Amino acid sequence: MRLLKQLAAVAAVAFAGSLAVGAARWNVPLTLVLGVATAVLSLLAYAWVVRRTERRAPVEVAARGAGPKLGRGVLVGFAMFAAVVAAIAVTGGYRVHGWGSAGGAVALVGFMAAAAVTEELLFRGVLFRIVEERLGTWGALLLTAPLFGLAHLPNPNATLWSALAVAVEAGALLAAVYAATRNLWVPIGVHFGWNFAGGGVFGTDVSGKDAPQGLLDGVTSGPAVLSGGGFGPEGSVWALLAGVALTAVFLRLARRRGTMVPRRGRTAPADPAATLAP
């Protein structure tokens, strides 16, 4: 019941925010303000409903220390996307025609902030976290990662391959990031860093969605399995490989920190205090 209540509270704000951002029609100041407002209101809704349904402080979105955690996540996401674009460029699938639009990049800050925050709250903050309590970290990851991929299947230019790629490189990776850090700021940062690097900096399609030009006028071409095709670099084999590698890194970090949650009924970690590691 609490899962449904939490999903409903965050989804209501996310839906209203998406309508408002869409109505802005990429007007730069409006899209920026409405996108950031959607992100903030979604966080407040999540914190409120967690307090009401779980009778606890929502420490996973605590404001204290949020900046550095968010910043680390953004760097990881940006670096991951830059590495993927570099691999695509080396194989002849990405080139830059020139400068794009600074205004478009600013608008995308708001748009991507809303998308990153709302999706992380819904999929990692609610679904993964609550399912993990019963099925453990591995069970929750195997259940929620495919759901995240399927959620992107209705996007323009999406295919079963792109949905599978998103399930691994984002669904599994972001769950692993949460499992290792036990806060939502780092996965939000990774999510935003990846999305903004794609649309706002390198000028590529992001999850098949139409968006204004970013800082660079970038173009992808060639076989879709290498470049991602119309879905964007997320649909490339390079993104899939990067996601697998980073997922393994964060799961290993979670195991080392003792933050992996066992399936209900199994023995808990030897040092429960380790789950408080930042």
How many E strands? 2
Q: What is the helix/strand order?
A: HHHEHHHEHH
- Percent of residues in beta strands? under 5%
Strand order of the largest sheet: 1-2
Radius of gyration: 18 Å
Biggest sheet architecture: 2 strands, antiparallel
Low-confidence stretches: 268-278
Task: Record the SSE blueprint.
Elements: H1 2-23, H2 28-54, H3 66-90, E1 94-99, H4 102-151, H5 160-181, H6 185-201, E2 216-220, H7 224-227, H8 237-257
Antiparallel strand pairs: 1-2
GO biological process, one term: CAAX-box protein maturation
Keywords: Hydrolase, Membrane, Metalloprotease, Protease, Transmembrane, Transmembrane helix
InterPro entries: Rce1/LyrA-like_dom
Question: How would you describe this protein?
Answer:
The chain crosses the membrane at residues 30-49, 70-90, 102-123, 135-153, 159-177, 184-202, 235-254. It holds the Pfam family Rce1-like. One of its GO terms (biological process) is CAAX-box protein maturation. One of its GO terms (molecular function) is endopeptidase activity. Residues 105-196 form the CAAX prenyl protease 2/Lysostaphin resistance protein A-like domain. The protein is mainly alpha-helical. It has one domain (66-276). 68% of the residues lie in helices and 4% in strands. The chain has 8 helices and 2 strands; from the N terminus they run αααβαααβαα. The protein has helices spanning 2-23, 28-54, 66-90, 102-151, 160-181, 185-201, 224-227, 237-257, and strands spanning 94-99, 216-220. It has a two-stranded antiparallel ribbon. The protein is globular and about 55 Å long. The two termini are 29 Å apart. The relative contact order is 0.15. Mean pLDDT is 93; it is low at 268-278.
